[in-house]
Amino acid sequence: MPRLQRKNFSKPDQVRQFPAGRCDIVTLDEMSVGRFVFLPGWRWSKDVAPIVGTSSCQFRHLGYTISGFMEVCMDDGTTLVIGPGEAYEIPPGHDAWVVGDEAWCSVEFASAHLYGVPPADIGERILATILFSDIVASTATLERIGDHAWSQLVHEHNMRIRAAIDRYGGREMDSAGDGFMALFNGATKAAHAAILMDTSVAELGVRVRVGIHTGEVEIVGGRARGIAVHAAARIASLASAGEVLVSGATHDMLDGSGLTFTSFGEHELKGLSGARPVFALQR
């Protein structure tokens, strides 16, 4: 539950050093906030890529620039210079570098908890709770409201889904059209994020379906892979508008969370062996 609190960056919970830069991190329950300081000459592909082992930065950044200038180049060649006093969002798949002779200083509200962490420290395989969401009846909605209105709706939907992921400390791993995949370091966080997702987008006149599963995930090049990912996607496909379905593994981990579930039966999940129990979250 949210509570009144504060922390000072003079005493961060974590300090992560890079060549020509650093990230100080404070944790406010489910949310981590980072203060980035990169010196002139810092460049992601030179200073961070050798640490994380990916060809471009695979994190989404959401923050505010205090000082300095940063140029960002997306994998598709799109560029943008971000300066003091500007709020910014940078999608996954980019390089970035400090422009000029002034250090870049910013505060970020997404990605700081894992930014620049070597794969060995994260673990090649990690235990995570995987969440899939997508808009129900998207094609019918598109046909009903038209291309322009649909584009605006999806934009607002995406903002609200990302806000829910960020609120509960999740990591966005993939998005395509009106669907999202995110990883959480706790089943309860994922379940609460799922509730917030549907209630927030319901105000737009659409509903989402969500599937959640907990298992081992392999992170390769910023992408999540493994049987657990497929299981979560298959469970999401069983859900109807406004439903949040969880696997038996996730259900067991939510014992004592205060959330209520009913049995959704046992289901054969495509590509996976054996019938598996599925539970529906009650609200």
Which short descriptors sum up this protein?
283 residues, alpha+beta, Jelly Rolls, Alpha-Beta Plaits, 2 domains, six-stranded antiparallel sheet, 17 strands, globular
Largest β-sheet summary: 8 strands, mixed
What's the number of domains?
2
Determine the strand fraction and express it as a percent band. 35-45%
Q: What Rg do the Cα atoms give?
A: 20 Å
CATH class bucket of the largest domain = Alpha Beta
CATH architecture of the largest domain: 2-Layer Sandwich
What distance lies between the first and last C-alpha atoms, to the nearest angstrom?
A: 16 Å
In CATH, the homologous superfamily of the largest domain goes by the name Nucleotide cyclase, GGDEF domain
Architecture overview:
The chain folds into two domains: 14-117, Jelly Rolls; 123-282, Nucleotide cyclase, GGDEF domain (Alpha-Beta Plaits). It contains eight helices and 17 strands. With 283 residues, the chain is an alpha+beta fold. Strand 5 (69-74) and strand 6 form a beta hairpin. The protein has helices spanning 44-47, 49-52, 119-122, 138-145, 147-167, 187-202, 227-238, 248-253; strands at 14-18, 21-28, 31-38, 61-67, 69-74, 79-82, 87-90, 94-99, 104-108, 125-135, 171-176, 179-184, 208-220, 223-225, 244-247, 260-268, 275-282. The longest helix is centred in the middle third of the chain and has 21 residues, at 147-167.
